[in-house]
Amino acid sequence: MPQLLLHFCFLLFICLWRCIPVADASPLLLDKAPPFSLAGHLENLVDPGGALTLGELLTGKSSPRFVPLPGFVNYGFTSSASWSRFTYLPGAESSGELYLRLTPAFLDEVTVYVQVGADPTTPSSYRVYDLGDHYPATKRTIRHSDMVAQLPSSAVPHQVYIRVKSSSTHTLQGWIYPGDEFIAWSAHYTTWMGGLLGIILFDLVISTLLALMLRDVLFGYYSLFALTFFIRQLGIDGAIFVLWPSGAHLVNDYLVGGGISLGLCAYSLFVMRLFNTSDERPYVHRLLQLNILIGVLNALGIPLGLYGRLAPVTTICYLLLACFIPLLAYQSLRRGAPAGGWIIAGFSVVLIPAVPRFLVVLGLIHPTWFTTYGYYYGMILQMVMITLALIKRLEVSRELVLAASRRTEAVAVELAEEMTCELREALQRQTRFVAMVTHEYRTPLAIIRTNLDLLDLLHDKDENIAFAVGKMKRAVIRLVEVLEVSLGRVRLSDGALTLRPEPLGVAKLCAGLLEQATEYWPDRRVVVVPGVAVVVQGDPLLLQTALLNLVDNGLKYSPVDRPVTVTWEVAGGQVVIRVADQGSGVSSEEGKRLFEKYFRGSAATGTVGAGLGLWLVARILEEHGGRVTLESGPTGAVAIVRLPLSTGFPLRSPASSAL
Predict the structure, then answer these.
(1) pLDDT tens digits along 353-382
(2) Per the domain annotation, does 53 fall within a domain?
(3) How far is the CA of 38 from the CAs of 145, 174, 361, in angstroms?
(4) At what angle do helices 466-482 and 444-457 cross, to 10 degrees?
(5) Do 546 and 640 fall into the same domain?
(6) Are residues 522 and 540 located together in one domain of the fold?
(7) Does residue 310 share a domain with residue 264?
(8) Cα–Cα nearest to 465, from 432, 424, 440, 422
(9) What's residue 109's pLDDT?
(10) Do 580 and 632 share a domain, yes or no?
(11) Do the domain assignments include residue 477?
(12) Confidence class of residue 25 from pLDDT cuts 50, 70 and 90?
């Protein structure tokens, strides 16, 4: 068995070896269907010092010798320069112009020497084209997103020499086109590249809008990665040389290197957030943190001239990400993560073209069409799938929240019904407490405080009301449970009021107020007059509680056939809400004290409440940066509420106030 396995491996090696193209560097005959690839027709030599000149190469004074290449030039990251040469022979039917197209566009220095004279050994017989992203595009003979040089089309052999030096990956690909074919290809490539950049830009806009609207950090990291990918494609594909010919050479290194480096940071942050690596996979989390550090150092290395040394490490980090991210996605899918199928598909479609792409960048394999364009198609599919996965993940999260809300609502209704029955039984046995409790019954926070105060008053009373005390204690406990389970955002803990402000339209707030008022007082009229559309920042539950107390207070002081009117307007950077009744009004002295704790108002009104309703209103508005006053109007009393508009006013610390 070991011998058979050894023989099989040997045969496999022989097959793979035979599949490797043989380099013969034969002249390129332009007699087939264009474009004509330079692969297999190039000879190359490495110039470590970068000091060789064309004259030395033509006269044979240089010691290095050209060696045939089986494909295109690819040395990975190196500080050495290289020379490539090839010979082409136009066909007998060739006529018109010929164009040499070289890629990638981000190479620093590319100089093309094209033989136009009769003597191939004389430097003066060569026309020089200075290309590469360190040369201004305005000085190029042909402005194009790639590096283009014009070739003579006379039916005699012509030699072309190409010198390349770059701090980025040292690779070179080339094709020859007839004039018409080059124009057609350029139009097709422009359409294709415009579509690619358009898709990336569209995905960037969508993810950015979702990040801002939902305030989701995950969408923010993803939009940052899309931005870096868009920026680097401008430099890698040479679009910046068309958009800004005079200044592209000044920024292209930063676009390419910075986009790749910061893209690694953004992608690592996105993966950390998506898979929650800090809690579930600490070792992966540390590796991603190392990626972020390497990405930052690589970006800083561009102006310091260290990019060529750090870029290989960044490429290896990308390669590792491309390999183990699908494994993370698969594990999340097995655990039933939302949209796990879309996530694993999105990361997998880019894995197949990404691995050979990175191997090309490292100089380990030769570039091909698949390594160049397959990666782009994979990235487009990945960006679309990941965006859909994030949206699906958001929908699933919302469904879970709604389901939990429904369950909480059912529990709250059940507890509220039980609490109401116990309160009604206790109040029926102790009628002397009815007026005090009724005044505060519809204010959840105030009834807790009122009942706690009542229980303190009953502590030393006779045994005849012991049964009522027990019932009241149970009612208070139930009411606290209702508030914590159903409302969720308001918690009474040692008298502290917890706020969770959010943008809230005043019109929506008053509409909810009218709905509750109609439910609580079906036989009374409450009129809400629509005003301007404004937004405040506050807790909707607490603000509605405050306004409901003011309406309740107005109804108590108004005749049964007269309505309570609610209006609002904007004045002095504030929204002013007025709750007006049609009662007998209030004196100035009493109006100053009505918002004091336990102040029950004038005995002439017949109201003997606990004196907590208006005090609670004042406390809630203070926490929201507002205030309330009570004045006598033409036909009764007017409660005037002032709240700042939603411009980021500072809320006071919850611990600074107590009910």
Answers:
(1) 877 877 887 777 777 777 777 878 888 888
(2) yes
(3) 19, 6, 19
(4) 150
(5) yes
(6) yes
(7) yes
(8) 432
(9) 94
(10) yes
(11) no
(12) low
Tokens describing residue 350: 């880019």
Q: Are 641 and 507 contained in the same domain?
A: yes
The residue among 399, 424, 452 that closes a domain is 399
Q: Judge contact between 243 and 97, C-beta under 8 A.
A: no
293 found inside a domain: yes
- The distance from CA 490 to its chain's CA centroid, rounded to whole angstroms, is 31
Q: Which amino acid is at 193?
A: M
For residues 44 and 82, is the Cβ–Cβ distance under 8 A? yes
Q: Is 594 left (phi over 0), alpha (psi -120 to 50) or beta?
A: alpha
Cα–Cα nearest to 291, from 258, 261, 312, 325:
261
| pLDDT band, residue 196 (cuts 50/70/90) | confident
By DSSP bridging, strand 81-90 and strand 28-30 are: parallel
CB-based contacts of 190: which residues, under 8 Å, 6+ apart?
145
Predicted TM-score (pTM) of the model is: 0.58
Q: What is the average per-residue pLDDT within 441-465? A: 51
Determine how many CB atoms are found less than 10 A away from the CB of residue 470. Answer: 13
pLDDT of residue 605: 47
Domain range for 580 is 502-656
Residue 462 in domain: no
Q: What is the CATH number of the domain that holds 191?
A: 1.20.1070
238, two tokens: 């040479």
pLDDT at residue 600 in the model: 67
Does 657 score more than 70 pLDDT?
no
Question: Which residue type does 569 have?
Answer: E
Alpha carbon distance 322, 268 (integer Å):
11
Q: Which residues pair with 503 in a beta bridge?
A: 537
Q: What are the C-alpha distances in Å from 532 to residues 91, 505, 527?
A: 79, 10, 16
Count of CB atoms situated within 10 Å of the CB of 304 = 9
Compute how many other C-beta atoms are within 10 angstroms of the C-beta atom of residue 597: 14
Our count of domains for the chain comes to 3
Both 79 and 91 in a single domain? yes
